[in-house]
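User: I'm curious whether this sequence folds into something compact or stays loose and floppy. Could you predict its structure so I can see for myself?
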Amino acid sequence: MIELHKLRYFIAVAETLNIGRAATQLHISQSPLSRQIIALEEQLGTSLFSREHRQLQLTEAGRQLLKEAKELIAHALQLETRIRDEAEGKIGTLTLGFVEGAIHAGALQTAIKRFLRVAPLARVELKNLRSRKQFEALQFGGIDIGFTYAPPTGDSSLVCEQIADEGFILAMPKDHPLAHGRLDIRKLDGEPFIALPERESPEARQTLLEACASAGFSPSVRFEASDPTVALGLVDAGVGLAIVQESLGSSITKGIVLRPLPSSFPMRVRIFRVSRECTRPLVSRFLSAQRSKTEREDFGGKSEA
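Assistant: Here's the prediction. I'll summarize afterward.
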């Protein structure tokens, strides 16, 4: 097998056609360089240079080797750079799991922006998964980092940080009798509401009903929508009321009025960033970018615990 340093020596001689100039370029003396070229020719079993009248000229074999040697050296340099960049967490693919609330709160977008500031050549793959599925994916390598509604339990190898915490607001049609003036929360009792499908999220539905009862009213869930933006569309159409996280307030239409819920309403949206203790360099770079004070100032945005 031809060693790369011999190919570099050959390329220098082939491009200068002068042992002396090539030796100067390579920072070695002429004799060792001549011996390396002769050894290469012996290894290949053919002459790479003609030496008539003490003037070096490439043979046909030499011209062919020059072309392929330059390509091989370029590929080796690219490989070396890629491996180094991967080891430093500059390139590669990072797979993030997320819940929709992380997008509505701006936590996911901000995290990706911060990361791309320090690793602009990296690729980011996103997977929309429920929190429990993200914990499983983290265990088996399906994702690198998760953005979940809850911290993991029972797995000490997972590292968790709360990064967002916000409350809920009440969205109702602008022509609803309770849309203006002082809101008596008890009058929401029996009002038609839009909520997550019970079959899809029975625990979330039960949490909502318990939170409403704690605040002093019992909603009548008559319509279901998996996407809170769809729920807001139904509110705009006058179908019913919806309770959504505060950050969605910036996307409402003119047909919707937002009312604050009483302090007794116990539900909040909390977003957690979860990763494994033993991480790839790319993951470490991502996490380092999130914890940088400079990056937090650059992107401002939602609250971070």
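Summary: Residues 294-305 have pLDDT under 50 and may be disordered. The chain has three domains: 4-87, 93-163+271-299, 168-260.
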